[in-house]
Amino acid sequence: MLSRTADHLYWMSRYTERAENTARLLDVNYQTSLLPQSAEVATYGWQGLLSISELLPAFKEKHGQITPEATMEFMVKDESNPSSIVSCLRAARENARAVRGALTTEAWETQNTTWLEVNRMLRNGEFERDPGAFFEWVKFRSHLSRGVTLGTMLQDDAFYFSRLGTFLERADNTARLVDVKFHALNSEFFGAATEEDQEYDFYHWSAILRSVSAFEVYRKVYRDVIRPERVAELLILRADMPRSLHACLNEVVQNLEKVRNQQSAETQRRAGKLLADLQYGRVEEILATGLHAYLTQFLDRVNDLGWRISQDFLVPAH
User: Fold this and answer.
1) 27-34 long-range contacts, Cβ below 8 Å, gap at least 24?
2) Using a CB cutoff of 8 Å and minimum separation of 24, what contacts does 218-226 make?
3) pLDDT digits (tens, 9 = 90+) for 117-155
4) Could you give the CA distance from residue 286 to residue 282 in angstroms, rounded to a whole number?
């Protein structure tokens, strides 16, 4: 397969997944901001969201003070922000258009319709009228895109590269989310003492779980109150949780195996080693060494994998 074609398919999927993840984060922050809380805690939540995406400096340069309205505007509609929902959906569609011949009609039309529809919705003010419904729509379009790819595309290199992009992006985002949300607590709400803190604790953790569609899953798996260490275990180590780091790395390793070439052995080795760490890891060990340090290292390794995949498969030969 031409490296240029592989590159477009890989990034089409990454941008679609990124738009969905951004919508998930914004939705949770928006829902949480409707709960009774101090202005300081509310601002901290929006600041955390910008930190996850590494957009805090760019935001402050443009808007100065952090407000819910300015943050949502910046993360949804701002075309100068490469990680905004509208920028991601445009990039996904442009990448799809470049390799129109490698996609099925359904896969192309899903991307194209999403792009046309999001522009119509933003023009008509639908986002401002009901942000929650808009975020649900973005998530649904991403689900649709993945489902159409799975349901209509031949399982060849084009399919494997698009899956690779999806799960590498998802691993990166879940790690950022867990890191920032746990970090935001410092020690203030960890093992909450007062009744008020416990109530905040419950909403905080259930919001994190809902942001990765894991609230019902948590209830099913643990049948217990929501505990921080179990949230970490579910989102990092459980292979049967679709958005966990373990599940994402399973997919990355499987799809790398399918597209391997003469120069990708080292990339596969590193991906396999990262997967082994998740397979045999224990949440107690992770928390003992420090969750932030663990996730920072995980993100470094995922970024290294992304760079290596680009070098091995995607950079067109000059």
Assistant:
1) 27/131, 27/132, 27/135, 27/136, 27/139, 27/211, 28/207, 28/208, 28/210, 28/211, 29/68, 29/71, 30/68, 30/72, 30/131, 30/132, 30/135, 31/132, 31/207, 31/210, 32/203, 32/204, 32/207, 33/68
2) 226/201, 226/202
3) 999 999 999 999 999 999 999 999 999 999 999 999 999
4) 6
DSSP state at residue 311: I
Which DSSP state fits 100? G
CA separation (Å) from 252 to 63, 140, 258? 37, 23, 10
Q: What value, to the nearest 5°, has the Cα angle with vertex 147 and ends 141 and 152?
A: 125
Q: Do the Cβ atoms of 280 and 269 come closer than 8 Å?
A: no
Report whether 17 contacts 138 (CB < 8 A): no
User: Is residue 224 within 8 Å of residue 230, measured between CB atoms?
Assistant: yes
Q: How far apart are CA 158 and CA 160, in angstroms?
A: 6
User: CB-based burial of residue 51 (10 Å sphere; 0-12 exposed, 13-18 middle, 19+ buried)?
Assistant: middle
What element of type H or E holds 209?
Answer: helix 195-211
Helix (H, G, I), strand (E, B) or coil at 51: helix
Closest CA to 88 of 130, 26, 132: 26
Tell me: the pLDDT tens digits for 54-88? 899 999 999 988 888 999 999 999 999 999 999 99
| Residue 70 contacts residue 56 (beta carbons within 8 Å) | no
